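Methods: example folding runs. The two proteins below were folded one after another, and each record is reproduced exactly as written to the output file, sequence line first and structure-token line second.
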Amino acid sequence: MSTVRADERPEVLRRVTAKEMRIAIGCTPTPVEQTEAWQAFEATQSRSLFGRYLYECEGKPVAALALYRYEVAGRPFVWAKHGPVWLKEQSPAREAHLRVLLRQEVHRREPRVVFIRMHARYRALDTRELLSTIAYDRTYVIDLRPRDPDKIAEIMPKDGRRAVKRAQRVAEAAGCVIAEETGLDRQAFEEVYEVMVATAVRDGFRPHPSRVYWDMLQSLGPSHARLFVLRRDGVAHAWDLVTVVGRHATAYYGASSDESRTFRGAEALDWFVARTLAAEGCEGLDLMGADSARVPELYGVGQYKKRYARHPTEVDGAWDVPVHRLLYAAMVRARRLRGSLRRRLGA
């Protein structure tokens, strides 16, 4: 439970329009989920905007965030994916105060909402590990600022520098063709999606239905969502769905076939995407997630991504912030019980 009171600090929370939020953020790097464009994607998934807010001090914006309505186990919650966007100093006290104001606002507007999911740098008494899904608090970003491919490779760790050059050479020798296919039609995308199905079987996760990835491409549009595909003999073997906001890009989703490993398809594709975006003026390609003490589940993918950057980039991790603490605790207990039963049944 937070010890901060809403009236102990000068900052206030104000609900704003999309335009007001956009003006307040200005040129500050912003995750795609906190842009206006993201609202269209959430709508395709039947999730509506709860609200956009500015956290202000004496009329000047300190942070901004957009929250959307979600459900888990039939219970409503609101989620500010990769938000808030901090515009001024981000301190433990400010984070805690913002959570107090948000809890009050959410409870006032929609009393049934059980918790808020949002990001924070500092763990606190009122934050909880996520009830569902996993998030990350470290990532690796390929530095694209040198623009020239040789210079980009030069600032990678030695094994990464060798890996991308070798992958490019091996993929070309195998007859692979890599191209942007953002404008492909739905039927063609279904073929590409099968690579994700194969990836999920191999790596042991459940992919989204193809419609989710398709809706993301269509609703965000080519200015914010782009698809790059590696093919061999016309058959898709690897793809990256990349989001772009300003000069910052994120490898949001990716997939690769088992066969692609024989010609280093995933590495060749990632390197192609990095070179393409660098030539277009992007400053970094975020590989979106790596392991940390908090998320050891990402260790494997972290080992792959760490070759592309000399140092990890710390990012704000996601936390659940209970609005109804007793009900949230009951949901946690129920989830643990279901997990225990599944393990006993060998599911």
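Second run, written to the same file directly after the first:
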Amino acid sequence: MKFIVRILILTLIFSCSSTKSGVAKPSKKTLKGTWQVNNIKFVGDKGLYKAFLFDLADSACFKNSEWVFIPNNGSGKFATSATTSQCEVMTNNIHWSFNDTGDAGSLFQFKYIDADTKAKKVTTGYSGTIDSLNENTMVLRVATTYEGNAFDVLMTFNKVSDDITL
């Protein structure tokens, strides 16, 4: 009888502990590998938008960009693509993590790092809300503005491989 009571208590504890509002907190292991941004979409009032993302390049330069995520230490990199004549290929080393914001969901956040600077010494970075994440796809919502108008950029990442070579 004591055994059954213990099993019931453990089941109750584990069933209530790992989720909020029915949505599981993302695991860094889910992002392990090489990913590619295959779609960029603007969400907001109708009109023409221009987005300069992550203080680096126009949003068009992130289409087909390749991102590498290493979960055990949060290191990674991404390379923009030359999808238009205004885009040049740029590779940036990053340190990334998730930040659970409670009921508002989870943020994907990163900061630029270089070989001479430890990640903990970099105090500025970038973030986006994770709209969805599974083993093959991530949709990241990045809030931005253009000419004083706020809108969101949805970046859809698809997993290319399990390779984590920097």
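Comment on the second run: The chain has one helix and twelve strands.
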